[in-house]
Amino acid sequence: MKRVSTVQLATALASVALVMALVFPAGAQAPAGPAAGPSGFSFPYKDKAGVLKARFTGASSTPKSPTLHLVRQFRVETFRGDGTPELVGEAPECLLDLSTKDVSSAGMLAMRQSDGQFAVRGEGFAWSHESGRLVLSNKVHVTFRADPFASAAKPANPPRP
Amino acid sequence: MKPTLLPLLIAPLLVVAAGAEDLPLPEGSLDAAHGIIEQKNGNWHFWGDVHLVYPGVLDLTCDDMQVAQATDANGKPRPDRIIATTNVVMAIVMPPTTNSVTLAVKPGGLAHATAFQAVFNGTDNTVTLTGSAATGLPKVVTADGAFSGPLLTFDRARGRFVATNGFHMTFKAEMLKGLSGKTNAPSAK
């Protein structure tokens, strides 16, 4: 089997932050605002070229203030440029701040790469759009299929056959 | 102080991936009480009962782990520096085959390392173990011996181990059996 490069772990972890950035990209409208309703919502996010980059869904969205919404059964799917699935993130519920585009919850966040190479989950999370920081408060669990300590460069002395 | 090379003893210690190409990739995991992923600067921080497991290769526990990314020539992020700090304990499984002469560390064997801090440097492909006043010197223990020193560095690209500022080694006498009569092959000219 072909060996997975160590950079894949880095790429996968970086993708977690990236998908959060995709949730509320700079200049984009927050998904749970106008499109949200008591019967749920589905919000596709497309880039300027019209390519689908992500899809956000929720079972319901309840305004807590003019800018703060409680979203239940939150789910985000991201897609590569060719349209293939990339990442899936799910949270039973989360608070969405439309003014800051921050997302937070005391509950679970689970994200996984669609090809099964990487997944992360945590209990309690906060995503700050301004700082680009994802805080996982408790019970962080990451799984991956790459050697985190393997170098991209091959050893000077390869093993004997 | 001049570094001391121990190329024959520990050479393959962290050549952890040798022989792995024919094996299916195991699933690794990292558990921690808390974590932060910084998108903008590419830094990750895990702390509280950090436990990194890569089956058949490495099992590492520590109290704090920080990962700093760099971008490779292809523009992809890669771990440039992994710093495991406080109560670092590593169990390293040696690959089943290796090109290095092994004295204390046998292919397929297990090396047990303890340190205050372990730093993986992705730029020069080394792992550096250091101690502290509270925890003492970093130490590596195998089935046939042990060694410690103020600064233990595994040069993974060259497959050698470097001890700086001296080292102390203990080993079982029987590990020397079978070595008599063996000489190094002449170097190619």
Instruction: Give the beta-strand count of chain B.
Output: 13
Order of helices and strands of chain A: HEEEEEEEE
Percent helix of chain A: 10-25%
Secondary-structure element string of chain B: EHEEEEEEEEEEEE
Helix content of chain B: under 10%
Task: Output the radius of gyration of chain B.
Answer: 17 Å
| Continuous helix count of chain B | 1
Shape of chain B: globular
Mean pLDDT across residues of chain B: 74
Shape of chain A: globular
Number of helices of chain A: 1
Oligomer: heterodimer
What topology does this entry show?
The complex is a heterodimer of chains A (161) and B (189).
Chain A lengths: L6 H17 L17 E6 L5 E7 L1 E4 L4 E12 L5 E13 L5 E11 L4 E11 L4 E12 L17
Chain B lengths: L3 E2 L1 H4 L17 E5 L1 E5 L4 E12 L3 E14 L5 E17 L16 E12 L4 E5 L8 E3 L3 E4 L2 E5 L4 E5 L3 E4 L18
Antiparallel strand pairs in B: 1-12, 2-4, 3-4, 4-5, 5-6, 6-7, 7-8, 7-9, 8-11, 9-10, 10-13, 11-12
Which terms would index this structure?
heterodimer; A: 161 residues; mainly beta; 8-stranded antiparallel sheet; 47% strand; disordered C terminus; B: 189 residues; 13-stranded antiparallel sheet; globular
Task: Explain what this protein looks like in three dimensions.
The complex is a heterodimer of chains A (161) and B (189). With 161 residues, chain A is mostly beta strands. Chain A is built from one helix and eight strands; from the N terminus they run H-E-E-E-E-E-E-E-E. In chain A, strand 7 and strand 8 form a beta hairpin. The longest helix of chain A has 17 residues. The two termini of chain A are 16 Å apart. The N terminus and C terminus of chain A are likely disordered. Chain B has one helix and 13 strands; from the N terminus they run βαββββββββββββ. With 189 residues, chain B is an all-beta fold. The longest helix of chain B is centred in the first third of the chain and has 4 residues. The N terminus of chain B is likely disordered. Classes of the chains: A mainly beta (161), B mainly beta (189). Chains A and B meet through helix 1 and strand 8 of A and strand 2, strand 3, strand 4, strand 5 and strand 6 of B.
